[in-house]
Amino acid sequence: MSDFFKKLLSIVFIPLISVITRLLFFARLRTIFVRFTKNRLSNRLLKIRQNSNNRPKIEEQRTMLSLAIVDTVDRLIGKGGLSPEVSQASIRLWARALLTPRGSNRAVKRFNQQHGCDPPWFLTISPGHACNLACQGCYASSGQTDSQLSWSSLDRIITEAKELWDIKLVVLSGGEPMLYRSEGKDVLDIVEKHSDLLFLMFTNGTLVSKQLTERLAELGNLTPAFSVEGMAERTDSRRGSGVFETVVNAMDLTGRRGVPFGISVTVTHDNCEEVIPKSS
Q1: pLDDT of residue 71
Q2: How many angstroms separate the CA atoms of 198 and 62, rounded?
Q3: 3-state secondary structure (DSSP) of residue 186
Q4: In terms of DSSP bridges, do strands 169-172 and 181-182 run parallel, antiparallel, or are they unpaired?
Q5: Lowest model confidence (mean pLDDT) among 85-89, 172-176, 251-255
Q6: What are the residues whose beta carbons fall under 8 Å from the beta carbon of 8, sequence distance 6 or more?
Q7: Each residue of 150-171: pLDDT tens digit?
Q8: Measuring CA to CA, how many Å separate 8 from each of 3, 15, 17, 22, 280?
Q9: Which of 18, 148, 167, 169 gives the lowest tally of CB atoms within 10 Å of its CB?
């Protein structure tokens, strides 16, 4: 991305997103904005599909993702599930990630010239193997539980991924990411340093506290995904007695602070009927 484009983005685009975000908390204005945005995105999706031979598949996927995000934001704000602090960061970053053309980035052009395709849009990384649970069949227990990346190495990987690939999202896995400690810093310190990126963190949820959710709300650019196996019986049978209740409490704390979160489920023959709705 050229210096001129970066300057233009900071002068015009980001403040505009900030203003729009504030207006979304007024129900009538949000209804108008959501209807307008969804119509524009739907028309764009239709054009992409009509010209599917001339447009890369990623454009269709990004447009569909944009529609899903608009619906999610509308629902969360309407139900009071998204705080103004978090919405400012998350909407700004999602808008930048989905609307900023990657073709303008020099690193992306260089990668495409060398490899014949665009670089990855996101990076998945496990800072460490340590975990406070011992779930049956989990790959995290297959190696040394004390093995981890140094904070400096983790920071360097993410920095280079931004510079060389123009990534927009980092997915944090584990082990349990909340147990990560290196050079006096934790995983949220890396999220804070790279405030220009979106982060998704897979977590077992047992280490979530009110203090942690306050920090998540301040950061605004990390979304936790709580891992379960289904309901209480399935989850506790694999993760340990009482884990499901602990995770539900973590979800409650997170939601009360206006931080959006997701749920991660590995579908197996044991839980498929529980987690996948039957078609009527």
Answers
A1: 85
A2: 15
A3: strand
A4: unpaired
A5: 85-89
A6: none
A7: 999 999 999 999 999 999 999 9
A8: 9, 11, 13, 21, 51
A9: 18
Kindly list the domain boundaries of the chain, sorted by start residue. Answer: 3-100, 116-275
Which of 122, 119, 120, 75 is CA-nearest to residue 94?
A: 122
- How far is it, in rounded angstroms, from Cα 97 to Cα 92? 9
Q: What is the dihedral of CA 90, 94, 97, 100, to 10 degrees?
A: -110
**Structure tokens given for 141:** 């227990």
pLDDT given at position 1: 44
State the Cα–Cα distance between residues 261 and 226, nearest whole angstrom.
8
Q: What is the pLDDT of residues 96-139, one digit of tens each?
A: 777 666 666 788 888 989 998 889 989 999 999 899 998 888 87
Determine how β-strand 198-203 pairs with β-strand 262-265: unpaired
Is-contact 134 182, C-beta < 8 A? no
Class of domain 116-275: alpha beta
Question: Average pLDDT, stretch 35-49?
Answer: 86
Q: Give the helix/strand (H/E) hosting 124.
A: strand 122-125
